[in-house]
Amino acid sequence: MTDLDRLAAEKYVLLTTFRKDGRAVPTPVWAVRDGDALAVWTVSDSGKVKRIRRDGRVTVAPCDVRGNPRGAALPAHASICDRDGTRRVRDLMKQKYRLLGRLSLLGSRLRRGEAGTVGLRVVLDG
């Protein structure tokens, strides 16, 4: 089993982005396999999206719901999906997280609208 397979099988993944001064900002997120990458779904104007837009360097690690790491952090690069990519990420989230995923996506769409969330693609280094 590859590192990507192990991370994709986790319920939560700790996505760590980096501020301009280099400080790490870890966030537990849902993640799903999307071909050769992990896909993450998040709020469009979140801090992590702003940091990824500036510098796509991230790390990912398995974690629990509170963000406590349960394994080694792996270096990766994240990019922000376009509208079609974000739609694909939403569909993948619905498949993996079933009813809870569907309810979360619906609630988010009602609160923020279609453009209020965005997909992220995380490709492991190496």
UniProtKB/TrEMBL annotation:
Pfam families: PNPOx_N (PF01243)
Gene Ontology MF terms: coenzyme F420 binding; oxidoreductase activity, acting on the CH-CH group of donors
Gene Ontology CC: cytosol
Alphabetical list of SUPFAM superfamilies matching this protein: FMN-binding split barrel
Keywords annotated in UniProt: Oxidoreductase
Pyridoxamine 5'-phosphate oxidase N-terminal domain segment(s): 6-81
Tree of life domain: Bacteria
UniProt name for this protein: Pyridoxamine 5'-phosphate oxidase N-terminal domain-containing protein
Species classification: Bacteria, Bacillati, Actinomycetota, Actinomycetes, Micromonosporales
